[in-house]
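The instructor's notes for this session suggest beginning with a concrete chain rather than abstract definitions. Hand out the sequence below and ask the class to guess, before any prediction is shown, which regions might be ordered.
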Amino acid sequence: MSWLRLAWKVQRWELIFLLGGSLLLALAMAIVAWQIEVNGDAIAACYEQPETAWSPECRSMIEFGSTLASAVRILGGAATVAPFAVGIFLGAPLVSREIEHRTAPIAWSLSLSRRRWLASRVLPALVLIGAVLLILGQTSELLLSSVEDGTLGFQHYGQHGP
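After discussion, reveal the predicted structure:
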């Protein structure tokens, strides 16, 4: 357990930032999916009326639907980029911090092997990030499944399963 505590102390701020950011992104996607489910029928009913007969309530619902559609695009793009950003922000400092502080030769010579040293640094973060990215993937699926297939368009090609 001491290597787990050491890995937490070394990567504490990166993990807090990335885990918190990913969970906030997942929460935002869940809220937008919920709003689409709740207000989807009202927005569709407003579009069925001729544009000249739109009431102020319909105009505000259509504007809200437009905001939701742009939120789907932004959040979907952020969910696509999130695993790469997490990999860069967690992976790069692992070895570079040791090299920068000139402790790499000591750390590597005291460890049984370099692979074991790297595994003791990567595995705790990998388990946490894997769990959070699974949550992020599920909320991304929830968000994209709440939008009708015809409105997904080509920009979501390959991001959504059957």
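Then share the key points. DSSP finds six helices and no strands in the chain. The chain has a mean pLDDT of 81.
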